[in-house]
């Protein structure tokens, strides 16, 4: 890979110009397995319990139905991500795709909105770690767990992506083992009940409301954030135009099926959703009913480990988006530099860790709403970018191309737009304010749109 806007020079020259950092290349060290693990760790296989109580109450006990709708929309969008990474296998994800398809201004606004999603995902993980650990160890304040987690995750990100991959193996396997145990215990619990159980009850029963389920499905999009994060690792992946699309679809499907199975079992063993002690920690009520205090302890340990894994990879992912925007000049150039030895965007990593301290003062509901707005806006933009790139810019024609680059991403756009429009007023209030801030920044960078944003042209 080289930059077409600069003359050739050696890494040593870069280092001299920017001591300890440069805007060179990432180390390509990720294969297909590492990418799938990265995506699953980001999603957190146990993420179904992050908003379990909130969305179960929101949909009046129809959580699995909401997951089915979200999974369908996410698979269509995952397809679009795969198509765009084949065209532009660089860091930056949605920001890169929309910039290439629609120009620097729209790319910046989309990237800025995406940051609302990516920046607050590690924050969400830290917040959940604080909630569950302080509940289990009440003598230790939540801020201690939050601050300690931020420090450790930041250290692991600074020493390189290889260290994160090794830790992901352990933490993802832990969650998968717990899911198997939970499903098995749920089946045993149900088989021991004297009253007959309707197998379709979690999908449709009294109180079914399509608008409420759509609203719940929109919130559930944050559970799927992970397949899109895989695309941010394109410059650190060998053969990215093949491996990234395959990994994106694999992560979407595996994660979605896990969410569906777990939510179905939870709904079957705990159908009385109106009796949760606290919606934020409703999963504890479910675990206690299925396996008693022993399962509650195992769940807390595994779930916190999953949140830790998600914090690691989400911080790595957002730092790559900040790196891409800094490299292009859309953010200060310091964001677009890499540490010479470890080849990581240290400035971006440290800034994200500082922003994550907001977890000390924010609520779970607020964070969930903020993330869902940014995610669905970005997903809609990627679906449109496929149509623009292949049918408009590349001028591909014929029935097959219209299907692959028109109909499928078009359905993806309509589904994500529909979910986006179903978000709460709080989501739109926060999201539109954030976009307004981005517009102000963009006007400053472009002198009220009189000049173009700088761009670093990349070529393989």
Number of domains: 1
Low-confidence stretches: 1-21, 456-460
Order of helices and strands: EHEHHHHHHHHHHHEHHHHE
What top-tier CATH class fits best? Mainly Alpha
By DSSP, the count of extended strands is 4
Number of helices: 16
CATH T-level topology: Amino acid/polyamine transporter I
Which structural class do you get from the secondary structure elements?
Answer: mainly alpha
Largest sheet: 2 strands, antiparallel
Brief overview:
With 460 residues, the chain is an all-alpha fold. The protein has helices at residues 11-17, 32-43, 52-58, 63-87, 94-102, 104-136, 142-158, 161-191, 210-219, 227-230, 240-269, 282-328, 346-355, 364-393, 399-421, 425-445; strands at residues 2-3, 21-22, 338-339, 458-459.
Helices and strands, with pairings:
Elements lengths: L1 E2 L7 H7 L3 E2 L9 H12 L8 H7 L4 H25 L6 H9 L1 H33 L5 H17 L2 H31 L18 H10 L7 H4 L9 H30 L12 H47 L9 E2 L6 H10 L8 H30 L5 H23 L3 H21 L12 E2 L1
Antiparallel strand pairs: 1-4, 2-3
Helix pairs in contact: 2-8, 2-11, 2-12, 4-9, 4-11, 4-14, 4-15, 5-6, 5-14, 6-7, 6-12, 6-14, 6-16, 7-12, 7-13, 8-11, 8-12, 9-15, 12-13, 14-15, 14-16
Structure description:
The protein is an all-alpha fold and 460 residues long. The protein has a single domain (34-459), classed as Amino acid/polyamine transporter I (Up-down Bundle). It has helices at 11-17, 32-43, 52-58, 63-87, 94-102, 104-136, 142-158, 161-191, 210-219, 227-230, 240-269, 282-328, 346-355, 364-393, 399-421, 425-445, and strands at residues 2-3, 21-22, 338-339, 458-459. The termini are close together. Mean pLDDT is 80; it is low at 1-21 and 456-460.
